[in-house]
Design brief:
mainly alpha, about 210 residues, rod-shaped
Length: about 210
Amino acid sequence: MMLMAGGAAMVFSGCGITKGYKQAAKTGAGIAEFRDEIVKAKGAIDATMKSLGDIAATANTDPRKAFNQFSKDVANLDSTADKIRKRAQSMKEQGEAYFKQWETELTHVNNPEIRSLAEQRRAKLQETFQSIRKYTEPLKGQCEPWMSNLEDLEKYLGNDLTIGGVDAAKPLFTKTTEEGLEVQKSMDALVAELNTIAATITPAGKK
């Protein structure tokens, strides 16, 4: 009897079935970290739009302080975007590892009813996880050209911070601000989706 019990313990230990929820929790944490970077980016956009507005407001007096702040904000926004890309890649890798581990563990499930249920759940959660792309890809398409235009506007102002130069660029200020608001709306939609997915994948427990 002792030998049988020991053998059973070795089988279940080898399968690693009890460890899957840990990978699920890790995946959920990765999603939450990605979400937090998106929220930071929203704040960075607010700061950048404010300093851009300050340039217009101080053009007739001294816009240099506002421009220096704008330059810092653009650099911070670029750094934040880089962190988002890294978080997105990490989240993707964690998700792939989770579903791959689950797939491997299914090969050790003998009961066809339980295996079928597990396969259905795995497919459903994997589809849910992959739905993130429906939000990240359009956001990337919005954000990259907007950031490029923002950096070009910084270069323009860096060479012509005169009253006339700022005044001529005001329509671009307005356009850039409006596009920034649209980017933020897309970020809001992504954050809402990430919250839903994290709650779906992560086991309940202490925060």
